[in-house]
Input
Amino acid sequence: MLFYLIEIVTLIAINVIFALGLNIQFGYVGVLNVGYIAFVAIGAYITAVTSLGNTENGFTQLYILHWNVPWPLPVLFGGLAAAAVGLLLATVTLRNLRADYLAIATLSLAQVLYTIVANNDSLFNGAQGLAGVPRPFDAQLADASQEVYGLVFLIIAVIFAAILFLATRQLQRSPLGRFMRAVREDEVVAESFGRRPLVARLAALGIGCFFAGIGGGLLIEYQTAFGSQAWFPLETFIIFAAVIVGGTGNNLGAVVGAAIVLVGINESTRFLPASIPSELVGPGRGVLIGVLLILFLRFRPQGLLPETRVRLYGRRIETPDNPELPTPPQTADATTS
Amino acid sequence: MLIGRGITSGYRGEPVLRDVAITVPDGVTVAILGPNGAGKSTLFKTLIGLLPLQGGSVHVDELDISQMPPYRRVRAGLGYVPQLGRIFPSLSVRENLEMGGFTLTKELTDRIDTVLELFPDLRVAMKQSASNLSGGQQTMLGMARALMLQPKIMLLDEPTAGLSPLYAAKVWESIRNIANAGIGVLTIEQNVTFALEQSDQAYVLVNGQNTSHGRSSDLKGRSDVEGLFVG
Amino acid sequence: MHILIQSIGYGLVTASVIAIGAVGLSLQFGVTNFVNFAYGEFLTLGAYIGYFVSTQAHFNVFVGIVAAMAVTGLLAVLLDQVVFEPFIRGRPNLVVLLIVTVALSLILQNLYQIVFTTDFRRYAAPSNTQYSVGDINFTGSQLLIIAIAITAIGALQILLKYTKLGKAMRAMSDSADLAQASGINTRLVTRAVWLISGMFAGIGGVVLAINVYNVQPTLGNSYLFLFFAAVIMGGIGKPWGALISAVVLGIVIEVSGAYINAAYKGGLAFLILILVLLLRPRGLFSSRRRTV
Ligand SMILES: Nc1ncnc2c1ncn2[C@@H]1O[C@H](COP(=O)(O)OP(=O)(O)O)[C@@H](O)[C@H]1O
Ligand SMILES: [Mg+2]
Output
């Protein structure tokens, strides 16, 4: 029981990181990254190949880089790699102001990356993926019991989640964060901030993918293995469900949504009647998540914890006593969070 | 006759117009004047049904059209030429007119002929893509399209914007012809002096509210009206 | 040299499959102004119907196609009525509609797994006879695929060009607001568009099954991004553009497939898509270059 609790809270913490990142893209600025899970995968794979070194830990597997940099650098590299790919893709596709182009491009990227990674053994060991990934503090805690190590990892995951949560909140309150929401609400009003809306979208894409990569890195370290079955499209939708159920645009909502959706999925499948064949459990879950998403979008689009709306419309924003007054453009801070 | 009472409407629940009243009698040209952003185009979108009413009502004669979708308002007697995008650019000129007469069947060709009597310039370009027309011709095509179903009221959003004075006068000649046929014409005009010279009546809209209304000849020369665009 | 010519032939077959899907997707995208991420699942359903009717029940391939068109056409209209219309009435953000279509894709794909299982169903080829056209060898099935594509797209072109309904669809692609304000019952036209788009998915699904010999729950989805690539290259809402782009994509994919690892074929198509987005985001055939 205790072990189950530790495990589920750890997974919740990692999914909170995913949800926070997706919330910045989808919730703050309104760009739709349908291939979000591919960025999680990039983070996971890069974390693995920058920490595995040549040891292979008893597995025979092929992979690139063979670095062995000290923790937590591999996780950071995972995040940066995901952010770099996200930014590259966004630079290409976001010149179009249409949300669908990015959605199409991210979906296509995820599908193409998936085929390439699964069919090319020399990158990340093909479809099987990588195993034996070193866990943080493995050497120091070699003698620890499963529960104790689990607890240590839980603390690590929660610390990561907490740091990223605080960073997100800072971002939301910063001029860049307000600009992001202005872009989501109204292109025309956003123009009055004196910056190009593209900047907000690029920043959201980069930061959100960074979160995805960090989460992916932690996930592969926790499971010590990661293969292509771990990044089926369904996984993206668990994260979307978390954000939408929790409350699009609300950071606390992302936390609550991640917890509810993960616990919900775990618990609902535990209490399924035994007569249901096990191969139907996965698809049934997929149907359920899809229906849940549509029902929430239709009947409670604001989610369980609605975002506190700021007034961004019309001339109101220009009145001098308005606390949401757009800040004058600053040249340097556009890309920093 | 078009009668709007207590019209309140706007975008995403935020009202732009508050309690606006407007009446357009048959056969009369009525101009709406007001500074940029006053809500003139918003009023037209609300009258035609592209924006939902948040309060008030719209009638054509005795018929309440407040809850109708746009295409039913058109069939109830409204014709509309928007400020931007007056034509279907990937359709030919003739096809544009066919779209205006979507509910017509046998009488379509006759109706196109009748409408073109008002706009002879278009006759030579019938098979061309509408996107090849000049700005002024596009306005004419939009008006011709809106006349296809023999409307009782026409809504023209800045029909002379961007046109040379000569072409603007030509557009107003068409407008007066339309009104002489018994159709009420509601237009938006940028140029106050010009509009007051041309129209029968005028409304002034500022900040989403009616301020003045009267015969155009009476409003002419009043500093609070003609000064609208100076400040 | 022979390999090159032969792979151009296969390219035309692949192009026909992509073209049907892309044209059906492009029509609905152009008119309703949101892209349907569940379109791959529409094709998958069509493929299953074709399999049950033609392979299992041994009916003629055309009976299978008509049945598939009927079922997927109805599915599309039903989804429009039950799911999209209520959303659209609330004037939602584009992003919300996109997520709804992705969620539908997820639901349908998993439903197929539950109802049809994940087994590969072998689709029996309608004709294995070999024909030579110039230096290229085709099977009867492959020629059938090309003929079906030409017929279906030709028929749609006639509808769009010469009928009132078709002209209204083009008018809505230009501006749905102006179409409504001109007196066109846009709800009716939208319903017709979903019906036709769904019927194209039915044809596309069967043709896809004929081309790859089998049906499984992710069949249509794995082609979706090729349809997207053709739609974007061709310019949204321009069926002819989608057709020409499909031919380009089909030939590039099959010709490169003759020389490089098959796994990279999709990557190449993606590269083309990215290049188009970079250089001509409004499509290859637009007169304007990119907007900044
Ligand atoms: N699509 C829109 N979404 C949100 N606000 C809008 C939109 N169109 C216009 N507005 C706002 O409504 C107000 C009135 O605009 P409009 O009716 O176009 O003015 P005009 O009198 O110049 O035609 C303006 O403040 C404008 O910013
Ligand atoms: Mg205006």
User: Anything to note?
Assistant: The mean pLDDT of chain B is 90. The first strand of chain B starts at residue 2 and ends at 11.
